Write the structure tokens for this entry.
Amino acid sequence: MSLFITSLNSGSNGNCYYVGNEHEAVLIDAGISCRETEKRMLRLGLSIQKVKAIFISHEHSDHISGVPVLAKKHNIPVYITPGTLKHLRIIPEDYQIVHFIANNPVTIGGLTITAFSKFHDAIEPHSFIVTCKDITVGVFTDIGVACENLITHFSKCHAAFLEANYDDEMLDNGGYPYHLKRRIRGGHGHLSNKQALELFINHKPEFMTHLLLAHLSKNNNSPELVYQLFSSNANGTEVVVASRYEETAVYHIGEVNTVIGRAKQLAFNL
């Protein structure tokens, strides 16, 4: 059995990642509106009825703003840590809350979802891997440093969403105030292009077929730059830049890797 993946949106304006098999799926974060989530899935030919859970990485608004309406309307359980839930402004009314624990796998149909802790300026931040039989997909964004947890899980992935948030030179020369620049690159903020590329080059498994570069900064990065940087070091892995304005195509991760849904685009309308 294989997995189907897409980024429904990726960036500081909202994050939502779909991973599923033929029977069920999960969303990692729900940072865009219910309406946009529905519209984008419909365009891709994905059924919202297959979504059996929403997993929340941390409490920042670009990861949770769509949760209340989406979970209530479609009766989708929300998997979240107790600490993250305490710091949310959303009230869990009329939908189910389930607590997860780092490194304890959660089974949902044919999917196994495992969370692990990461470095980010949030209460209990986590990243996730989703496995279906022998296929594993990772969702690795909002990460301050490529810690051993990240390295270990990245090296197991057949495909991954990986943060490449900022270019060092663009951040240095940009208009952000010093305290924000320090927060971004301070070890609990975001991964730079350089940090993400080092992880990719040094720890990418030979069987990784797809890398979806995620959470690019609108002001401190360039989709063209990121694509060229990673594709020139891909060694057979297909590199995709996830957009902050629209969904990617659906990628089929398995023995035969194909693209379904919209035609794959290399236009950088991010």
User: Anything to note?
Assistant: The first helix runs from residue 34 to 44.
